[in-house]
Model the fold of this input.
Amino acid sequence: MRWTSGRRSSNVEDRRGGRVSRKVAGGGIGTLILVLVALYFGMDPSELLQQTGTLSSTSSPNAPYEQTAQEQELVEFVSVVLADTEDTWNAIFAKSGHPYTEPKLVLFSGAVQSACGYAQSATGPFYCPADQKVYLDLDFFQEMKQRFRAPGDFAQAYVIAHEIGHHVQTLTGLMDKVQTARQRLPQAQSNELLVRLELQADCFAGLWAHHAHRTRQIIEEGDIEEALNAANAIGDDRLQMQSRGYVVPDAFTHGTSAQRVKWFKRGFTTGSYGACNTFDTDDL
Done:
């Protein structure tokens, strides 16, 4: 991927080196009961404590972070990809007569506190609609190579562009509509809406690649294959088979490998926002 000459974004927020701690407020017999209930039902006690307001998180100011030369290069790379998404979506929104609000991308290490709650690196990159920020631990890129066998800078760019796709869904009001609708639906149907949301973000990632290449000729030989390999590697069916040994379609939340590849390719080949309407088709 040709990225080194690209514009750097000013919307990268570096929290690496900061410490996030979790503590239980109050405590006593009530907290013990909550923990026992969570364990009885096979839940993570921390999730229940956070939902009830018993568990809180605190952040301390960033300590000086000593980064390697490789990490510095990754930060530069992330900044360029983010800037490319800004240019792409500013242009698309301008055509519709609406302003595009650029999100922040937060770099963290280990754990982070967002407006959506506490998260550890194991969560992977995520977008929080409540503060309109994307959160990324750079170590995830190494996990892509080792765990998902999806190496390459364009595969990494795909991941960032996918999360920015969720920001677009938030700005258009779609994210809120989907979350509201899910509250009234059975689990299987609720999950289907999540799948459509995620596949649209994949399509938006392909749309970004289309426009970025048309503007700056960023794509080199093998780049699209890297993105498709990453999309294929993180399909629900493949991940379930690896972890469980079998597949449960009703539990899908992101789409199959084939679906994720299909929708990225659709965004890339068409470059059209309208072509990414995953909510108005029976052919996912």
Notes: Strands lie at 12-14, 19-24, 55-60, 104-107, 111-114, 117-120, 126-128, 133-136. The mean pLDDT is 83. The CA atoms of residues 238 and 257 lie 7 Å apart. The chain has ten helices and eight strands.
